[in-house]
Amino acid sequence: AQSVTQPDIHITVSEGASLELRCNYSYGATPYLFWYVQSPGQGLQLLLKYFSGDTLVQGIKGFEAEFKRSQSSFNLRKPSVHWSDAAEYFCAVGLGGGNKLTFGTGTQLKVEL
Amino acid sequence: GAGVSQSPSNKVTEKGKDVELRCDPISGHTALYWYRQSLGQGLEFLIYFQGNSAPDKSGLPSDRFSAERTGGSVSTLTIQRTQQEDSAVYLCASSPTPQETQYFGPGTRLLVL
């Protein structure tokens, strides 16, 4: 069965520092790949997605992610974190005709001022 | 334009009672998904609709859970004889077609006492 791994449950960074959140997936083919962000009490907001083509994708709020087929990874990056980026981040893969999403367990990001 | 809306935003019920959760997708979106977010299980897929049909119900945890969609629009998730383990946030998402990005609603927080 397919799976998504986010190895870091919690990450703390200082405001202005760079950020990388890790995501690895296990699936026989290249799935659709997504990063969503969830602020407390809110739904999920799409940051970016990869379907095909250029392996470096740009998203909203200054985030980017790079798809690496050889490593089955889709890590999320941001050059300079803002305090408002504190939230929980979910990596997800979409599979099959219905594109149902399988989510990782999430990474909780704390930003220190 | 309007996003995905869900009602109620919060629901408290007693064990054994039935509950109905409603989802209004983005207008024109043919695909609709239900997910559940709980502390123990993370984010899990429940069911997917294409139009009014549900080609994938594989995530429904028991026969106490059912869902329907009418007019290719509104969907209702029904939980019969609720149990405490049903306590979770129930998220609805919609997409223009199954192969496109899913947009999430704010969720319904269900508490079973």
How are the SSEs ordered, and which strands pair?
The complex is a heterodimer of chains A (113) and B (113).
Chain A: E1 3-5, E2 10-14, E3 19-21, E4 24-26, E5 32-38, E6 44-50, E7 56-58, E8 64-68, E9 73-78, E10 87-95, E11 100-103, E12 107-112
Parallel strand pairs in A: 2-12
Antiparallel strand pairs in A: 1-4, 3-9, 5-6, 5-10, 7-8, 8-9, 10-11, 10-12
Chain B: E1 5-7, E2 10-13, E3 19-24, E4 31-38, E5 42-50, E6 53-56, E7 65-69, E8 75-79, E9 88-95, E10 103-104, E11 108-112
Parallel strand pairs in B: 2-11
Antiparallel strand pairs in B: 1-3, 3-8, 4-5, 4-9, 5-6, 7-8, 9-10, 9-11
Describe the protein in words.
The complex is a heterodimer of chains A (113) and B (113). In chain A, 0% of the residues lie in helices and 54% in strands. Chain A is mostly beta strands and 113 residues long. Chain A has strands at residues 3-5, 10-14, 19-21, 24-26, 32-38, 44-50, 56-58, 64-68, 73-78, 87-95, 100-103, 107-112. In chain A, the strands form 3 sheets. In chain A, strands 2, 5, 6, 10, 11 and 12 form a 6-stranded mixed β-sheet that branches. In chain A, strand 10 (87-95) and strand 11 (100-103) form a beta hairpin. Chain B is mainly beta. Chain B is 0% helix and 52% strand. Chain B starts with a strand and ends with a strand. The mean pLDDT of chain B is 95. Classes of the chains: A mainly beta (113), B mainly beta (113). Chain A binds chain B through residues 32, 34, 36, 42-46, 49, 90, 92, 94, 96-106, and chain B through 4, 31, 33, 35, 42-45, 48, 50, 55-56, 59, 91, 93, 95, 98-107.
